[in-house]
Amino acid sequence: MTRKFEGKSAVVAAGAKNLGGLISRRLAERGANVAVHYNSDATEEAADETVEAVEAAGVKAIKIQADLTVPGNVERLFDAAVDAFGGVDLAVNTVGKVLRKPVIETTEADYDAMFDINAKAAYFFLKEAGKHLNDNGKIVTILTSLLAAFTDGYSTYAGAKSPVEHFTRAAAKEFASRGISVNNVAPGPMDTPFFYPEETPERVEFHKSQAMGNQLTKIDDIAPVVEFLVGDGWWITGQTIFANGGYTTR
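^ thats the sequence. predicted structure below, dont judge the formating
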């Protein structure tokens, strides 16, 4: 296996399990040190397992627990990675929260939580990545293919993810002079534990029917796209890449 990221270091937000965990492992297998971020106490065991897998790949790992809706915690995350590894080159944000709820039933608390997690945390992740990354670094945020869907129920989820496209375009322009690329990846509905509680079995089957192979997006199909953007795809910047088996397009 090519260790194309030998000598580099990465921060992976929500990097303990599911897509984030896979990205942490893949970057480590290719030579990058990894700072594994996680949010809740319930995820600490998964974070420990991911740290162990990263170290087994022959690189360094640290774990950091933090609520990234608090900007000071995002700064602390990057500071910890710089302290541990001497610098940061790659920053991947997989943080997100899904909510399917009609507009007329959505509370202010729902709205605030969704925008804090999906938009505010993403904004300050970009800010701190821009401050901390070495020149020629790479930044990727995970969004959603619902950005291109005309559907019900996901007003606060897709709505809170949508500003990140502009955050990314602005950051890509502002960081370009340092050779830092900034992109998004927008998966289709993913086959992870976050998706199923928001949907009925019938709607799950409908989502499957909209993509090639009659299947949901798998994390194994998204991690290589992220790896490409932080590696050989360095010339791509300011973009949102829809990787969804044809679920939506625009």
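The mean pLDDT is 96.
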